[in-house]
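Note on ligand handling. Small-molecule inputs were canonicalized before submission; formal charges were left as drawn, and no protonation-state enumeration was performed. Where a ligand contained multiple stereocentres, the stereochemistry in the source SMILES was retained. For 2-acetamido-2-deoxy-beta-D-glucopyranose, this procedure yielded the string shown in the input block below.
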Amino acid sequence: MSSIKGFILTASVLLVLVSVCLSAPPYITSDKLEMRDDLIEGDIVPNPESKNGIRGDRYRWANRTVPYQLDSNFNSSEVEKILLGWAEIENTTCIDLRERQSQDSDYIFIEKGRAESGCFSSVGRVGGRQVINFEPPCINRHGTIVHEMLHAIGFYHEQSRPDRDDYVTVVWEKIEPGKEHNFNKYTEEQVDTMGTPYDYGSVLHYSGFGFSIDGSATIVPKDPNAEIGQRIRISDIDAYKVNVMYNCTSFL
Ligand SMILES: *[C@@H]1O[C@H](CO)[C@@H](O)[C@H](O)[C@H]1NC(C)=O
Ligand SMILES: *[C@@H]1O[C@H](CO)[C@@H](O)[C@H](O)[C@H]1NC(C)=O
Ligand SMILES: *[C@@H]1O[C@H](CO)[C@@H](O)[C@H](O)[C@H]1NC(C)=O
Ligand SMILES: *[C@@H]1O[C@H](CO)[C@@H](O)[C@H](O)[C@H]1NC(C)=O
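Structure output:
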Protein backbone atom coordinates (compact mmCIF):
# COMPACT_ATOMS: atom_id res chain seq x y z
CA MET A 1 0.00 0.00 0.00
CA SER A 2 2.86 2.35 0.57
CA SER A 3 3.67 2.13 -3.10
CA ILE A 4 0.31 3.51 -3.84
CA LYS A 5 0.52 7.12 -3.08
CA GLY A 6 -2.98 8.11 -3.57
CA PHE A 7 -5.99 7.44 -5.42
CA ILE A 8 -7.03 9.36 -8.25
CA LEU A 9 -10.34 10.12 -9.29
CA THR A 10 -10.92 13.03 -11.28
CA ALA A 11 -14.29 13.97 -11.13
CA SER A 12 -15.37 16.44 -13.51
CA VAL A 13 -18.83 16.93 -13.90
CA LEU A 14 -20.17 13.75 -15.03
CA LEU A 15 -20.43 10.76 -12.92
CA VAL A 16 -19.96 7.62 -14.69
CA LEU A 17 -21.61 4.58 -13.40
CA VAL A 18 -19.98 1.41 -14.13
CA SER A 19 -21.73 -1.76 -13.65
CA VAL A 20 -20.02 -4.77 -12.49
CA CYS A 21 -20.98 -8.34 -12.48
CA LEU A 22 -20.27 -10.38 -9.46
CA SER A 23 -18.55 -13.20 -11.12
CA ALA A 24 -16.86 -10.72 -13.33
CA PRO A 25 -16.14 -12.19 -16.71
CA PRO A 26 -13.27 -10.35 -18.32
CA TYR A 27 -15.52 -9.22 -21.14
CA ILE A 28 -18.82 -7.88 -20.01
CA THR A 29 -21.90 -9.07 -21.78
CA SER A 30 -24.45 -7.40 -19.58
CA ASP A 31 -23.77 -4.14 -17.85
CA LYS A 32 -26.47 -3.76 -15.28
CA LEU A 33 -24.09 -2.23 -12.80
CA GLU A 34 -22.90 0.35 -15.28
CA MET A 35 -26.32 1.01 -16.69
CA ARG A 36 -28.28 3.15 -14.31
CA ASP A 37 -31.28 4.74 -15.92
CA ASP A 38 -30.93 8.21 -14.47
CA LEU A 39 -27.33 8.80 -15.43
CA ILE A 40 -25.76 9.72 -18.72
CA GLU A 41 -24.40 6.70 -20.57
CA GLY A 42 -25.45 4.63 -17.60
CA ASP A 43 -22.61 5.55 -15.29
CA ILE A 44 -21.89 9.22 -15.77
CA VAL A 45 -23.33 11.88 -13.56
CA PRO A 46 -24.77 14.58 -15.77
CA ASN A 47 -22.58 17.49 -16.66
CA PRO A 48 -23.88 20.29 -18.80
CA GLU A 49 -20.79 20.20 -20.96
CA SER A 50 -19.90 16.70 -20.68
CA LYS A 51 -17.96 14.61 -22.81
CA ASN A 52 -13.32 10.81 -24.65
CA GLY A 53 -11.09 13.38 -22.92
CA ILE A 54 -13.17 16.21 -21.56
CA ARG A 55 -11.87 19.53 -22.81
CA GLY A 56 -11.15 22.30 -20.34
CA ASP A 57 -8.41 22.97 -17.81
CA ARG A 58 -11.00 23.44 -15.08
CA TYR A 59 -11.70 19.72 -15.15
CA ARG A 60 -8.06 18.79 -14.43
CA TRP A 61 -6.71 17.81 -11.05
CA ALA A 62 -4.04 20.08 -9.65
CA ASN A 63 -0.48 18.77 -9.70
CA ARG A 64 -1.61 15.55 -11.41
CA THR A 65 -2.71 14.49 -7.96
CA VAL A 66 -6.08 13.08 -7.09
CA PRO A 67 -6.83 13.03 -3.37
CA TYR A 68 -9.34 10.43 -2.32
CA GLN A 69 -11.07 9.35 0.84
CA LEU A 70 -12.34 5.83 1.26
CA ASP A 71 -15.68 5.17 2.87
CA SER A 72 -14.99 3.57 6.26
CA ASN A 73 -17.61 0.96 5.43
CA PHE A 74 -15.30 -0.81 3.01
CA ASN A 75 -13.72 -3.86 4.58
CA SER A 76 -10.09 -4.81 4.23
CA SER A 77 -10.48 -7.02 1.18
CA GLU A 78 -12.51 -4.36 -0.60
CA VAL A 79 -9.91 -1.74 0.19
CA GLU A 80 -7.22 -4.02 -1.18
CA LYS A 81 -9.04 -4.44 -4.48
CA ILE A 82 -9.67 -0.74 -4.85
CA LEU A 83 -6.02 -0.02 -4.20
CA LEU A 84 -5.00 -2.52 -6.87
CA GLY A 85 -7.05 -0.53 -9.35
CA TRP A 86 -5.35 2.67 -8.26
CA ALA A 87 -1.95 1.01 -8.49
CA GLU A 88 -2.52 0.09 -12.10
CA ILE A 89 -3.24 3.70 -12.96
CA GLU A 90 -0.23 4.92 -11.02
CA ASN A 91 1.91 2.32 -12.74
CA THR A 92 0.93 3.36 -16.23
CA THR A 93 0.44 7.10 -15.93
CA CYS A 94 1.92 10.09 -14.10
CA ILE A 95 -1.20 10.51 -11.99
CA ASP A 96 -0.65 10.30 -8.28
CA LEU A 97 -3.53 8.94 -6.21
CA ARG A 98 -3.14 9.72 -2.58
CA GLU A 99 -5.27 9.85 0.52
CA ARG A 100 -6.92 13.14 1.17
CA GLN A 101 -5.23 15.47 3.61
CA SER A 102 -7.08 18.14 5.54
CA GLN A 103 -5.97 20.92 3.20
CA ASP A 104 -7.31 19.17 0.10
CA SER A 105 -10.55 20.87 -0.77
CA ASP A 106 -11.01 18.98 -4.04
CA TYR A 107 -11.20 15.25 -3.55
CA ILE A 108 -13.05 12.09 -4.36
CA PHE A 109 -15.06 10.30 -1.78
CA ILE A 110 -15.15 6.60 -2.64
CA GLU A 111 -18.53 5.55 -1.42
CA LYS A 112 -19.70 2.05 -0.63
CA GLY A 113 -23.10 2.28 -2.21
CA ARG A 114 -26.17 0.36 -1.21
CA ALA A 115 -27.28 -2.65 -3.24
CA GLU A 116 -28.22 -1.77 -6.81
CA SER A 117 -26.94 1.78 -6.52
CA GLY A 118 -24.52 1.05 -9.36
CA CYS A 119 -20.93 2.00 -10.04
CA PHE A 120 -20.52 5.58 -11.17
CA SER A 121 -18.34 8.64 -11.26
CA SER A 122 -18.24 12.18 -12.48
CA VAL A 123 -16.01 13.02 -15.42
CA GLY A 124 -12.99 15.07 -14.44
CA ARG A 125 -12.54 17.26 -11.39
CA VAL A 126 -15.79 18.81 -10.29
CA GLY A 127 -14.51 20.93 -7.40
CA GLY A 128 -15.01 20.18 -3.73
CA ARG A 129 -16.12 16.72 -2.74
CA GLN A 130 -17.19 14.42 -5.53
CA VAL A 131 -18.25 10.82 -5.37
CA ILE A 132 -17.31 7.58 -6.99
CA ASN A 133 -19.94 5.08 -6.00
CA PHE A 134 -19.21 1.37 -5.83
CA GLU A 135 -21.99 -0.95 -4.89
CA PRO A 136 -20.29 -4.10 -3.53
CA PRO A 137 -20.25 -6.14 -6.77
CA CYS A 138 -18.38 -3.32 -8.52
CA ILE A 139 -15.40 -4.06 -6.35
CA ASN A 140 -15.09 -7.58 -7.73
CA ARG A 141 -14.24 -6.46 -11.22
CA HIS A 142 -10.82 -4.90 -11.44
CA GLY A 143 -11.49 -3.24 -14.78
CA THR A 144 -14.56 -1.51 -13.40
CA ILE A 145 -12.54 0.05 -10.59
CA VAL A 146 -10.07 1.32 -13.20
CA HIS A 147 -12.92 2.42 -15.48
CA GLU A 148 -14.56 4.64 -12.86
CA MET A 149 -11.22 6.13 -11.94
CA LEU A 150 -10.58 7.05 -15.55
CA HIS A 151 -13.89 8.84 -15.70
CA ALA A 152 -12.89 10.83 -12.65
CA ILE A 153 -9.54 11.67 -14.21
CA GLY A 154 -11.34 13.15 -17.19
CA PHE A 155 -12.53 10.60 -19.74
CA TYR A 156 -15.81 9.61 -21.34
CA HIS A 157 -16.69 6.28 -22.87
CA GLU A 158 -14.66 5.28 -25.90
CA GLN A 159 -17.72 4.71 -28.05
CA SER A 160 -18.83 8.30 -27.55
CA ARG A 161 -15.93 9.57 -29.71
CA PRO A 162 -16.85 11.77 -32.66
CA ASP A 163 -15.52 9.13 -35.13
CA ARG A 164 -17.19 6.11 -33.56
CA ASP A 165 -19.56 5.50 -36.45
CA ASP A 166 -16.56 4.56 -38.60
CA TYR A 167 -15.71 1.76 -36.16
CA VAL A 168 -18.93 0.50 -34.63
CA THR A 169 -22.54 0.23 -35.66
CA VAL A 170 -25.08 1.30 -33.06
CA VAL A 171 -28.13 -0.90 -33.50
CA TRP A 172 -30.73 1.73 -32.58
CA GLU A 173 -33.74 -0.54 -33.06
CA LYS A 174 -32.43 -2.93 -30.39
CA ILE A 175 -32.00 -0.25 -27.73
CA GLU A 176 -34.67 0.00 -25.07
CA PRO A 177 -36.96 2.91 -25.90
CA GLY A 178 -35.95 5.98 -23.94
CA LYS A 179 -32.36 4.76 -23.44
CA GLU A 180 -30.97 6.05 -26.72
CA HIS A 181 -29.19 8.92 -24.96
CA ASN A 182 -26.75 6.39 -23.54
CA PHE A 183 -25.33 6.08 -27.05
CA ASN A 184 -24.65 9.76 -27.53
CA LYS A 185 -21.52 10.75 -29.29
CA TYR A 186 -19.67 13.97 -28.70
CA THR A 187 -18.14 16.54 -30.99
CA GLU A 188 -14.51 17.51 -31.45
CA GLU A 189 -15.27 20.65 -29.48
CA GLN A 190 -16.44 18.63 -26.50
CA VAL A 191 -13.86 15.87 -26.41
CA ASP A 192 -10.28 15.36 -27.47
CA THR A 193 -9.23 12.00 -28.89
CA MET A 194 -5.59 13.15 -28.85
CA GLY A 195 -4.82 11.75 -32.25
CA THR A 196 -5.29 8.19 -31.05
CA PRO A 197 -6.82 5.43 -33.15
CA TYR A 198 -10.24 4.15 -32.13
CA ASP A 199 -9.59 1.73 -29.27
CA TYR A 200 -11.86 -1.31 -29.22
CA GLY A 201 -9.72 -2.56 -26.34
CA SER A 202 -10.34 0.45 -24.11
CA VAL A 203 -11.48 -0.30 -20.58
CA LEU A 204 -13.83 2.63 -21.21
CA HIS A 205 -15.61 0.97 -24.16
CA TYR A 206 -19.12 -0.35 -23.70
CA SER A 207 -19.82 -4.00 -24.21
CA GLY A 208 -21.94 -4.92 -27.21
CA PHE A 209 -25.12 -5.58 -25.27
CA GLY A 210 -25.93 -2.59 -23.07
CA PHE A 211 -29.55 -1.40 -22.89
CA SER A 212 -30.72 -4.15 -25.23
CA ILE A 213 -34.44 -4.87 -25.55
CA ASP A 214 -33.88 -8.58 -26.07
CA GLY A 215 -30.28 -9.42 -25.28
CA SER A 216 -29.10 -8.99 -28.83
CA ALA A 217 -26.27 -6.62 -29.69
CA THR A 218 -26.70 -2.87 -29.44
CA ILE A 219 -23.14 -2.09 -30.57
CA VAL A 220 -21.41 -4.14 -33.30
CA PRO A 221 -17.75 -3.54 -34.16
CA LYS A 222 -17.15 -3.00 -37.88
CA ASP A 223 -13.94 -4.97 -37.51
CA PRO A 224 -15.18 -8.57 -37.26
CA ASN A 225 -12.17 -9.52 -35.16
CA ALA A 226 -12.61 -6.76 -32.60
CA GLU A 227 -13.79 -7.46 -29.08
CA ILE A 228 -15.31 -4.72 -26.98
CA GLY A 229 -16.15 -4.30 -23.32
CA GLN A 230 -13.01 -5.66 -21.69
CA ARG A 231 -12.79 -4.95 -17.98
CA ILE A 232 -9.40 -6.55 -17.35
CA ARG A 233 -7.01 -3.64 -17.36
CA ILE A 234 -6.27 -0.14 -18.59
CA SER A 235 -5.35 -0.33 -22.27
CA ASP A 236 -2.13 1.15 -23.60
CA ILE A 237 -4.14 3.80 -25.42
CA ASP A 238 -6.16 4.62 -22.31
CA ALA A 239 -2.93 5.22 -20.41
CA TYR A 240 -1.46 7.22 -23.28
CA LYS A 241 -4.45 9.54 -23.29
CA VAL A 242 -4.18 10.19 -19.57
CA ASN A 243 -0.51 11.06 -20.04
CA VAL A 244 -1.29 13.42 -22.90
CA MET A 245 -4.11 15.09 -20.97
CA TYR A 246 -1.81 15.75 -18.01
CA ASN A 247 1.27 16.65 -20.05
CA CYS A 248 3.24 13.73 -18.66
CA THR A 249 6.00 13.95 -21.19
CA SER A 250 8.26 11.49 -19.39
CA PHE A 251 5.60 8.80 -19.83
CA LEU A 252 4.98 9.34 -23.53
C1 LIG B 1 0.16 21.81 -5.92
O1 LIG B 1 1.52 22.18 -5.75
C2 LIG B 1 1.65 23.51 -5.24
C3 LIG B 1 3.14 23.84 -5.24
O2 LIG B 1 3.88 22.78 -4.68
C4 LIG B 1 1.05 23.58 -3.86
O3 LIG B 1 1.14 24.88 -3.34
C5 LIG B 1 -0.42 23.19 -3.95
O4 LIG B 1 -0.99 23.14 -2.66
C6 LIG B 1 -0.58 21.83 -4.60
N1 LIG B 1 -1.98 21.56 -4.78
C7 LIG B 1 -2.51 20.38 -4.50
C8 LIG B 1 -3.98 20.24 -4.75
O5 LIG B 1 -1.86 19.41 -4.12
C1 LIG C 1 3.10 -2.14 -11.06
O1 LIG C 1 4.39 -2.30 -11.61
C2 LIG C 1 5.20 -3.17 -10.82
C3 LIG C 1 6.59 -3.13 -11.41
O2 LIG C 1 6.55 -3.37 -12.80
C4 LIG C 1 4.60 -4.56 -10.82
O3 LIG C 1 5.39 -5.43 -10.04
C5 LIG C 1 3.21 -4.50 -10.24
O4 LIG C 1 2.58 -5.76 -10.34
C6 LIG C 1 2.40 -3.47 -10.98
N1 LIG C 1 1.15 -3.33 -10.26
C7 LIG C 1 0.00 -3.13 -10.89
C8 LIG C 1 -1.20 -3.04 -10.01
O5 LIG C 1 -0.10 -3.01 -12.09
C1 LIG D 1 -15.90 -7.83 2.62
O1 LIG D 1 -17.21 -7.61 2.09
C2 LIG D 1 -17.53 -8.49 1.00
C3 LIG D 1 -18.87 -8.06 0.46
O2 LIG D 1 -18.71 -6.85 -0.16
C4 LIG D 1 -17.53 -9.92 1.50
O3 LIG D 1 -17.83 -10.78 0.42
C5 LIG D 1 -16.17 -10.25 2.06
O4 LIG D 1 -16.21 -11.55 2.61
C6 LIG D 1 -15.77 -9.25 3.14
N1 LIG D 1 -14.38 -9.50 3.50
C7 LIG D 1 -13.95 -9.38 4.74
C8 LIG D 1 -12.49 -9.64 4.95
O5 LIG D 1 -14.68 -9.08 5.67
C1 LIG E 1 -0.77 21.05 -20.52
O1 LIG E 1 -0.07 21.95 -21.34
C2 LIG E 1 -0.89 22.87 -22.03
C3 LIG E 1 -0.04 23.66 -23.00
O2 LIG E 1 1.09 24.16 -22.35
C4 LIG E 1 -1.58 23.76 -20.99
O3 LIG E 1 -2.44 24.67 -21.62
C5 LIG E 1 -2.41 22.89 -20.05
O4 LIG E 1 -2.95 23.68 -19.03
C6 LIG E 1 -1.54 21.80 -19.43
N1 LIG E 1 -2.42 20.89 -18.70
C7 LIG E 1 -2.10 20.34 -17.54
C8 LIG E 1 -3.12 19.44 -16.92
O5 LIG E 1 -1.02 20.54 -17.00
